[in-house]
Amino acid sequence: MRKPWLGWGMLCALGAAAQPEPSLPAAARIILERNCAACHGAAKMSGLDLRTRSSMLAGGKRGPAIVAGRPEESLLLRAVIRAGELQMPPGRAPLPPGEVEILRRWIAAGAGWDAAGGGTEAGWWSFRKLRRPAVPEVRQRAWVRNPIDAFLLAGIEKKGLRLAPAADRRTLIRRAYFDLTGLPPAPERVEAFVNDPSPDAYRNLVEELLASPRYGERWARHWLDVVRYADSGGFETDLYLRHSWRYRDYVIQSFHQDKPYDRFVQEQIAADEIWPDDLALEGSHDLAPEKIEHLEARLGTAMYTFGAEEGESNMQIRKIRHEKLTDWVDTTGAAFLGLTVGCARCHDHKFDPFPQRDYYRLQAIFAATVEQEIPVVNKMQIRARDLSYWRILRLVELRTAHELL
Asked: Can you give the C-alpha Rg of the chain in angstroms?
C-alpha cells in the first residue's frame, strides 16, 4: 500500500514523544536550555555562560553560578527561587516548583554534566538520537488496529477520556477525500461507498485517492510553501519566473510516483552532482530512459532558483550575490533541518545548537553554485514544434470561429 509522506513525520513525532525520562543531569540541562540559554549562552550576559559545567563553576560577574553539592550556596538556585536581589528568569513567571526541585537535587548530587552527550542529546527532543519506542500497554486492546492507535489510546486512557464513537461511512469518505485531495466526494461516490459490502472498502478508497492526480496536487502545495515556490520574484519589479512551473510539476509528479523521501531530498540538493549527465539533448526524438531520469532529477535543483529577486539594480552585484547565498542557506535549513539557521547569519543561534561559524561553513558549500538554465527538450522536438505551431494555431482559430456561429 502506498503511504502519504505525512506518515513519516507522524511516526517520528510519536517516537520522540515516547522517549524515556531523562536523567537528572539531562533534566537540569533541559531546564537551563529552555529558560536561561538565550541570555546566558552565547550572549554571556553578566559574563555568565550556563552551557558547560566548568563555566557554571567559574560563574560570571557575581561569582560562581553553582557550588557542587551545596545548593543552598548556589547563586543559580537562589536566583530561580527569587530569594534575593536576583529574580530569574527576568520578566517571566517563576519556574514551576518541580523544575526548581530538579535543579536543587542536581546541584546537591554534584551537578553532573554529560559533556560527551552534548546539549543536543540531552536537550530539545528533536536533537536526540532516534530510538524505536516500546508500544505502550492499553486496557482497551480491541480498539487497537496498529501501533499508532496504541500510542493514541494510551494518552486517552491516561487523561481519563472516553473514545469517540466510530465514524459512519459517510463521515469516513468525507474525511478521506478532504485529507488526501482537499475536495468533497461526489454524491454518487458517497452512495457507492456506503453501499459497498466489501470489508476492504475503506482500504480500496484510500488506494483510489492516493492514485488520484488530486492527491499529488494537494500535498505538493505544502512542500511548495516550504521551499518558497512562486511564479515571480516579488518586490517592485516582480520578475516573472517563466520556468518555475516545471519545478511545481516535478514535485507533484514525485508524489504520484511515491518517490522515497531520501531520493526526493538528494535530487533537490545535489542532483547535478550525484547524477551528472550530458544534457545537450540533440540528434533524436528518443532519449535513453537513464538520461530522462537524470533530467527529471535535475529539475529538483530548481528549488534554489526561487525566493525574492532584487532586480532594481545591477550595481551592487556582490550584495545581491550574498543575499542569494543567504536565501539558499536559510531555505536548506528550514526545509531539510527544520531549523531557523538564518539567526546565525549575524550571531550564534540563541536557541538551537548552531553557531555563526557553522552558518558560514554551510554557506561556503553553495559559494561556487550558479543558476543555469538547462534544456528539457532536444532540438528535434523544438523543430517539430515550430513546424506544427501554425497548424495548431489554425485549428484553434477554426474552433473559436465555430463556437461563435
From this structure: 29
- From first to last of its 405 residues, what are the pLDDT tens digits of the chain? 444 443 333 333 333 344 445 578 888 888 888 888 878 887 788 899 888 888 899 989 989 999 999 999 999 999 998 887 788 888 888 899 999 999 999 999 998 886 534 444 445 677 777 888 899 999 999 989 999 999 999 999 999 999 888 899 999 999 999 999 999 999 999 999 999 999 999 999 999 999 999 999 999 999 999 999 988 877 777 777 888 899 999 999 999 999 999 999 999 999 988 887 766 655 556 667 777 788 888 899 999 988 877 666 565 778 888 888 999 999 999 999 988 899 999 988 877 778 899 999 999 999 988 888 877 666 666 777 677 777 777 777 777 766 766
Helices (H) and strands (E) counted in the chain, each on its own, are 18, 0
Q: How far apart, in whole angstroms, are the C-alpha atoms of residue 294 and residue 266?
A: 12
pTM over 0.90: no
Give the separation between CA 56 and CA 62, rounded to whole angstroms.
12
Residue 56, class by beta-carbon neighbours within 10 Å (0-12 exposed, 13-18 middle, 19+ buried)? buried
φ, ψ dihedrals at 240, nearest 5°? -80, 125
Helical H runs in 66-144? 75-80, 97-108, 118-122
**Nearest 5°: phi and psi at 90?**
-70, 140
The neighbour count for residue 63, using CB atoms within 10 Å, is 10
Q: Which residue has the cell 515516547?
A: 18
In 341-367, which positions are buried (b, 16+ CB within 10 angstroms) versus exposed (e)?
bbbbeeebbeebbbeeeebeebbeebe
